[in-house]
Specification:
Blueprint: E1 3-5, E2 12-14, H1 15-31, H2 37-44, H3 49-61, E3 66-67, E4 75-76, H4 78-89, E5 95-102, E6 106-107, E7 115-116, E8 127-133, E9 147-152, E10 161-165, E11 170-178, E12 183-186, E13 195-197, E14 201-210
Parallel strand pairs: 5-8
Antiparallel strand pairs: 1-2, 3-4, 5-7, 6-11, 8-9, 9-14, 10-11, 10-14, 11-12, 12-13
Helix pairs in contact: 1-3, 2-3
């Protein structure tokens, strides 16, 4: 079986381990957290969860990942964490600026390269920044021109403030209330009604607010 050396530490991986590792790395980079065993199994047509676990244990033994067996998605990548740390040291401070989010739905470009330096307040990996447009969340003390710091995630608890996407990948900032056949996206403004979406998705959960201009 073919083997390759990885970029960190020179440890060998089989070809299969490498594609699994790169799949995990890609998801962590894009959405802020790793895949479940089921997602890995589906991606590589692995019938048994034990087959996935064997790959994960091999990668863990080689120091390429760290796992928490009690959390489904808790896979950490030491190499990626080291890269992020080096980036801050070498002059790339700040969080990714992902654009503007408004009272209604707006198109978002979540891959922007611009960065805003909030590192003194928010330094965890998997965060991004959006500038708020409009007054839909004024009773949550978030006003036009403020910045919200979001943790990249695809899930949220009922009542959490989220950046949500509709079927057209348009984004809005609202409270998240799943209902039987739809999701209620609730503003924090008594003059505005809720938005109802059948297939809403979470892009991030708000973890902080920075006032006005920075």
């Amino acid at each position: 079986m073919a083997r390759r050396r990885n970029a960190s530490g020179g440890k060998e991986m089989t070809a299969r381990q490498r594609v699994v590792y790169e799949f995990i790395r890609d998801l962590v980079q894009r959405r802020g957290f790793g895949p479940t065993i089921r997602e890995i199994a589906d991606a590589f047509d692995i019938r048994s969860p034990n087959g996935v676990v064997c790959h994960l244990k091999a990668l863990e033994k080689k120091g390429l990942i760290r796992r928490n067996e009690f959390k489904a998605r808790a896979i950490e990548l030491p190499e990626l964490q080291a890269e992020r740390k080096r980036a801050r040291v070498e002059g790339e401070p700040g969080l990714p600026f992902a654009g503007v989010v408004s009272a209604g739905f707006t198109k978002q470009a979540f891959e922007l390269n611009e960065r805003i330096d909030f590192d003194e307040m928010f330094t965890s990996p998997g965060l991004f920044v959006l500038r708020v447009q409009g007054d839909s969340m004024i009773e949550a003390h978030i006003t036009d021109g403020d910045y919200v710091i979001c943790r990249s995630t695809a899930t949220a608890e009922r009542g959490q403030m989220v950046v949500a996407l509709n079927e057209e990948d348009e984004a809005t900032l609202k409270y998240w209330y799943p209902e039987r056949k739809r999701v209620r996206l609730q503003p924090a403004n008594p003059e505005m009604g809720p938005i109802y979406v059948k297939n809403a998705r979470v892009r991030g959960v708000v973890v902080g607010v920075v006032r006005g201009e920075v």
